[in-house]
Amino acid sequence: MGEVDPAFIQDPEHRPRISFTEAEGIPLIDLSPIALHPSSDGVSAVDEGVVREIGNACEEWGFFQVINHGVPLEKRQRIEDLSRKFFAQSLEEKRKVRRNDKEVLGYYDTEHTKNVRDWKEVFDFTIEEPTIIPVSHEPDDKEVTEWTNQWPDYPPELREACQDYAQEMVKLAYKLMELVALSLGLPGDKFHGFFKDQTSFIRFNHYPPCPAPQLALGLGRHKDGGALTILAQDDVGGLEVKRKTDGEWLRVNPTANAYIINVGDIIQVWSNDKYESVEHRVMVNSKRERFSIPFFFNPAHYTMVKPLEELTNEQKPAKYRAYSWGKFITNRKRSNFQKLNVENIQISHFRISE
């Protein structure tokens, strides 16, 4: 990634500004009042103040950070260390687990967002092994396939550490979904059933220093298609969130040992637009490399995503028609391997016009 290939260069209106505004307002929520285990009724040891904070953050920002979240620091440090070791290898070694349109998991260095190449390399693995997913995005094709992980030979302990860390992420995700449910006036376990055969995955991101940080982005502007994202980032910073009130891009400053949480498209649809999935992007810089590890909490492929009946009525009719999550994600994956002439599938395609 030495010279800046034109494939990386953003259109002028989407190029990053080198000066940036820090996001003072993104809430930092202390989860210590919560007993961190998925409970059957969702209300054991729930602190109502935390529920209210989560609800306000989801409504006003679509983003928040959590501390005292219950994920052991040594597990996070271990996975961050192994991620760095993996990316430090030669391109030849990393490409031994390179993904393609058949093996959709593993290493990749030519990802596109909004049809512009991202200045990064990634390694993906799923939580459920194997993960069941539709073969194609075609609505009438009922055939399913299995996604299986490709594990590199080095670092040798990577697989075990990843599986261990994944369990911590799932535990935290269930707890956060309970808080989101309660904040919407729903039973705490309302969402649990959707994730029985989850299609969740974890990604290692590596953003190398970029000679032209004013032209390229580590990750272009986008919204997350799943339910919830839990992000571990290092101390370099670079994540920017689009503020809902005025469309201003704000930098999310790293908070030591915190996780950054954002609402995905599925929660936007489930909540019938009460909570909104917000656009975000990643800046690069010319001096320092950056690492991050997002966990994408996604439901089973057979989930039909639609506004929840409890949150719709005659006064508040459903704003979306139901869509298949499996078909949605299969459609999204296509754009990784072919440059599409149109914008990739979005929840707006399922919006019911008023």
Summarize the structure in words.
- This protein is an alpha+beta fold and 354 residues long.
- It has helices spanning 48-60, 73-87, 91-94, 158-183, 265-270, 325-334, and strands at residues 21-22, 28-30, 63-67, 106-108, 112-113, 116-117, 121-126, 131-134, 144-147, 201-207, 219-222, 228-233, 239-242, 249-251, 259-263, 280-282, 290-297, 304-305, 323-324.
- The strands form five sheets. It has an eight-stranded mixed beta sheet. A five-stranded mixed beta sheet has the order 1-14-13-16-11, with no helix packed on it. It has a two-stranded antiparallel sheet with strand order 5-6.
- Helix 1 (48-60) crosses helix 4 (158-183) and helix 2 (73-87) crosses helix 4 (158-183).
- It is globular, with a radius of gyration of 19 Å.
